[in-house]
Write a structure and sequence with these properties.
Helix content: under 10%
Domain M23ase beta-sheet core: 219-313
CATH superfamily of the largest domain: Glucose Permease (Domain IIA)
Bound molecules: zinc ion
Distance between the termini: 30 Å
Structural class: mainly beta
Number of helices: 2
Pfam families: Peptidase_M23
Largest sheet: 10 strands, antiparallel
Shape: globular
Mean pLDDT: 88
GO molecular function: metalloendopeptidase activity
Protein name: Peptidase M23
CATH architecture of the largest domain: Distorted Sandwich
Number of strands: 24
Order of helices and strands: EEEEEEEEEEEEHHEEEEEEEEEEEE
Signal peptide: 1-19
Radius of gyration: 22 Å
């Protein structure tokens, strides 16, 4: 089955901020791709791609897209930096199918990093095809701060016990899992609390000072909301609870799977209202805030991970998967 992309023109700005559309027409199918062509370091890039049978020349093809394979690649400074597999969002009809893929953008890249995206695909085992899409990183400043840890928090941070190492291994095992059928929500996510006071931001550059005079550097992976102990914490989106337990550094913690490779994390709670295996709705109460684990006071730490990497949670409160245009 030979197919040729005849035109790769027609790239234009759509009505959505940052959303760009591209159309590709083959002999018996066409592709429309929608994606955010700009983002800040620490955000993500998502591409929604719909394959459909072409009605060109009145010809009807028997092409189906159930066996379509597609990959999204991100190139930075000319080098392949990250790759992600497209998953099916909806099988619209027998002759049309919508796919989505997302890639996390490093918070260490700057507006000077030259980038582009490449999409590689094949349908029904046909010859591999590929096309490129332009992409721009925007300028963002991050906060730098020094955190003085007391005796108890110094001990937690330095804890290398088997128990803590096993907890880290378990969490990483969850976060590296991208289950293609875990498609729970592609509409904008909610904030996990009514509180608006933020005491720490995504990707703050931190220096931790220990009571023994030593220090280490690290990145703050989430957003901290300063809320009193016992405040309601709710799921930012529909999903499946994949972790609900107490951990050495993060205290009472919940992890929810929302999309293949996309997870939300909630730390330092005083009490949980869900258990592993539960399915939750967006806005459902999953626990109450507290200061368990490594915490200098009551707060909620809310984090998002995409393909293992911490990404800016605020990015997901926008229409990141272009659901508004379906
Ligand atoms: Zn935090």
């Amino acid at each position: 089955m030979k197919k040729k992309i005849l035109a790769s023109a027609l790239i234009f700005m759509s009505a959505f901020i940052f959303a760009r559309e591209a159309f590709f027409t083959g002999d018996d199918y066409c592709i429309s791709a929608e994606y955010n062509d700009k983002a800040f370091p620490g955000d993500a890039v998502f591409v929604k791609m719909t394959f459909s049978q072409s009605t060109k020349k009145g010809k009807s093809s028997k092409l189906e897209f159930s066996n379509a394979n597609a990959f999204l690649q991100f190139f930075a400074e000319g080098k392949l930096s990250r790759e992600s597999t497209f998953f099916t969002v909806s099988k619209n009809t027998k002759s049309s199918r919508t796919f989505l893929a997302g890639i996390p953008l490093s918070t260490w890249w700057t507006e000077d990093t030259k980038c582009f995206l490449k999409i590689i695909y094949s349908t029904d085992g046909a010859k591999k095809m590929e096309f490129e899409l332009p992409f721009t990183l925007e300028k963002k400043e991050f906060v730098s701060e020094v955190i003085d840890l007391d005796e108890s928090n110094s001990n937690i941070k330095a804890d290398s016990s088997l128990k803590r190492m096993e907890q880290i291994k378990k969490l990483n095992g969850i976060l590296e899992t991208a289950n293609p059928s875990a498609v729970y929500q592609t509409t904008p996510f909610l904030l996990p609390t009514n509180a608006t006071r933020r005491t720490a931001f995504f990707a703050d550059r931190r220096e931790y000072k220990y009571t023994n005079g030593k220090s280490t550097t690290g990145l703050h992976y989430g957003i901290d909301f300063g809320i009193p102990e016992g405040s309601e914490v709710s799921a930012c989106a529909e999903g499946k609870v994949v972790l609900a337990e107490t951990r050495v550094t993060t205290g009472w913690s919940v992890v929810i799977e929302h999309l293949p490779g996309l997870y939300s994390l909630y730390y330092h709670m005083s009490q949980l209202k869900v258990k592993e295996g539960d399915t939750v709705k967006a806005g459902q109460v999953i626990g109450f805030s507290g200061s368990t684990g490594l915490a200098t006071g009551p707060h909620l730490h809310w984090e998002m991970r995409l393909n293992m990497e911490a990404v800016n949670p605020d990015f997901f409160t926008g229409d990141f998967a272009f659901s508004g245009k379906n």
